[in-house]
Task: structure prediction
Amino acid sequence: MPSYTQDDILTLHPAPLTHAPTSTIATAFLFGSITFTTATLAARLWLAGLWSWRDGGGPFSPSSSCQTQPLDVTSLPSIYNLLHHLSVFGFILLYSYMCENHPPYHHEEKAIYDRDEFLFCMIMVVVVAGGVSWRRNGDGVAKDTAQETNRLSKGTDNELMTGHRKKRGGGLHVIGEYTAGALPAAVAPLPSSDNDVLNRHQTDEWKGWMQFTFLLYHYIHATEVYNLIRVLITCYVWLTGFGNFSFFYKKQDYSLPRVLQMLWRINFLVVFLCLTHGNSYILYYICPLHTFFFLMVYALMYIGKEKNYNKWWIRFKIGVLALMIYALWDYDLGIFEAIHRLFLGDQPTAGAPFGTMWEWYFRSYLDHWSALLGMVFALNSPIVSLFYRKLEARSVGRQWIGKLSVLAGMTYAFVLWVHGPFMMEKEAYNQTNPYFGFIPLILYVYVRNLTPTFRSHSMELLEEAGKTTLETYLMQHHIWLTSNSKTVLVFVPGFPRLNMLLVTFGYVKICRKLHNLTLMLKNVLLPCDRNACIRSLTSIFVVISGFYLTAFTLNRIHSISLGAVGIVSVICGGLLYQTVMDSTWTEYHSAVKKAREDEDEDEDKSFADKSDVSYYTAGDLSKESIVAKLCPPIIGVMFLFVLGSIWNEIAIAGATSVGPLSPLCADFVNDGLWFPVDACTESNRGMAYRNHHVASFGTCSPRGASLIWAWKEQPAHTHCRFGLRGEAKLKRLLNRRRLLFIGDSMTRNIYHASLRAMGMRKAGAYDATIPKHTDLAEIMWDDTSVNFKWAPLAVDQLNCLRGVNNIILNDGQAPDLIVMGGGAWDRLHVYATDEDRQSHATTLKDLAHEMLRSQKLGVPVVWTIPTTINSQALNTEEKRDHMREEDMEAMRAVYSLNGILSSSSFVIDGTAFTSSRVSESFDGVHYPHEVYDAGAQILFQALDWLLPENPDDIVTPPKVGKMSNPTFGIIILTFVAIGLVSFDGFLGFSYLATFFVKGVKPCDLFEDASSESAVAEQQSQVLKRNHGQTKTRQPPPFLSSRRTHNESVDDEIAALLR
Result:
């Protein structure tokens, strides 16, 4: 282990937050202040004997009544409730930051994809979810409501059956003088919210299994199923259009609070993740997509909302929107770029390597029709529901003939899609997904709702998972995977499955907590009050802006540290604490005393332990001890100090985020070994059978074991995380670079190994027709030059390097990296006499001087130490006399003594990756290709500090609009028109049933479906009046927040189908 200077340690271990983005510092200020205030308030309440009353209740009221009520700035419990939950949220953000930037172990690369493992996990989840949690929707709490609904639908409720005629807008919902016999006769009973088409249970289940597939795809890097994942994202966006259209169509709530609540639900967590990690919004592209299409649905429904229930007006609006979508994405008129150029640019950023403009165009293009198709289905969903039930009222044979005819048509389209677009490569498939991705979607919806049993049952396990899809999508980037979903978080190194289990457990628990926090904070800060919502959002914006300005200022004067965060947090938190105390403490103290006195008068409610002195003195400010007054701020400071100390220790002892390696890692990069791996594993046998029809292996461990190069584990605090540099990574590192290799055959083999790593698989292949001692040149990726100069002797290398330096001085044409090596030929041919040795030493000194000269000219020089010699395999007498391993070991020392190694920017130790495989050197000097591949990988690790960012490496983004396809756009417009005019949510496929069953044409079901919708609405209103509100004991009004009723929007990312 090398020793480090103090400067080295500071380089390796900069203080936490030293290089953090300004937004990260601002977030630390914000939640540090909140945490200090929360800890101080908690200490004050506890010391004053009021801890049990912190939520507005007390020993007599165990429920936390103010947790979901709007914020009341005059109520201490309401303020404490908000601060407490914001502190919990802050700790979760801190945990995500630590997992990303200060993990206990180095982040690992993702597992190698195995199709068998992927299918096993998918099928296992469905089997387990179906076998364990398949249950009828509405069981439990909702069961009584379902029974009441059935009672009403049978005509036993007189209030409903004596309804009156009611019209809305242009007359879509027409409620006549309905009686029990007035509903359509040949139809099954009215559905409830638990057994209708695409009910809430079903959509949550759908989201659940899709999210599991999506996460598994990311975790095991299952690039093979990319096209399937694109379809699943299409389904998510389709559900956005379907769910939000359903809400506005049924609830008619276009208020500002409703819009802000929905935007909060989508964006609350992602905004703070962007601030915490310094990421761009587009990185979490699902959120921009949902936000954009939610606003699109809102705008459609809001414009002309008075006539939304006119039969043709709403269809006309959707048709106009379809034409706008066509003009924006499918016909390249430049409109998309003109609109978005004001907000988006071409500067590469995290999640957008070609800039946010292209990234947003690409992401939105892939699903630009999905939300609108979901809206078409939502508009026709009452007709779809009636269509199913009309069929189910027929005889079994006739019913299934009708259903199977529709299924046959959809299946035929699905087969065409599978054998056509779905089998395309990734780039080609992306061009077709917006136009044909709906085919498997509508087939799934049709089959999932095919029978009453399917519609009324769901898998509870997947349903629960589906409720937190937004949180699981966002947090996978940082606390399940890391590096924005590119690497794996490690808590248990060496046990990948156990590690996955542990990390997943914490990940799921945190995501569920975040889901509840988001909804709770929404209820508190964004009630159904326009002015309250505006005040809350304005306050949030002002506070965050203030902390951002503070962080920016401290950053400019280089005063950012954990200590600075602590000082700002204590000052701001102290001001907030004192403000809360001044405005609420006296009234709260008196209110508690009065409440307790009232409870003592009622013997039925008095269960308090009267031996507790604080119980009687809680309302007397004069009896509050000096300790209770002075200690809380001290406790708050101590709490922040302990938290900061833990953070600092973890940062020093732990690893760091994935990034360029430090130059200090040069001390470790040659420290590796060849590790034997038995290829005859179960997964490899399965892969061999699937891909090559191999039945069994013939060479297995110990004689058939494969050897792979591996680096030894380095302590996490070294921040030296080595790993395979594949073609994609090398393309990013070496784009538009010029690499020059100078040396003998050993260096030439490193040159060939480098080309193989860059993607030229046959580089270095044995070919006797090619001259061995010659220069070589290759162009990779059209703009990366990789050349080799044959220079076997030290004098040749000197002349070659001197010539390169002169060219740099005269023409400025400099290579970006020079890799050199030699010594074997010198030992063999020019090292026999003392004169030869002296001349060689002089040459080496001159060579070392030229190497330093190159570095002064800005070109790093890498030296390759000769590989281990297999003395017994040397094939000539001359080599056995002059090139034995003992001779070469002495030669290596000569090169070191004459300054070659010290003059190098980096040294590749050839013996490090060859000494343990010396017996495989077939001619005593050269090794199999895979051995040199290890040397190339050692070189590529060093590129992180050898090659700075290339200022000429300008990324040219693709042209916005290049993916447009007017012909496919016309096809999808046709399907939209069919869905609107034919009143069919399945875009015309339902009409196939009319060839076999009469009376089920969707266009003929419109009036009946409208009547049913009106009856269902009346049932819902009657149920509310019949059941009423459950009466619960409320705390005193002065202990709770404002008691304005605030009905939760709940989790409405995909659907709001109550």
Observations:
- The first strand starts at residue 108 and ends at 109.
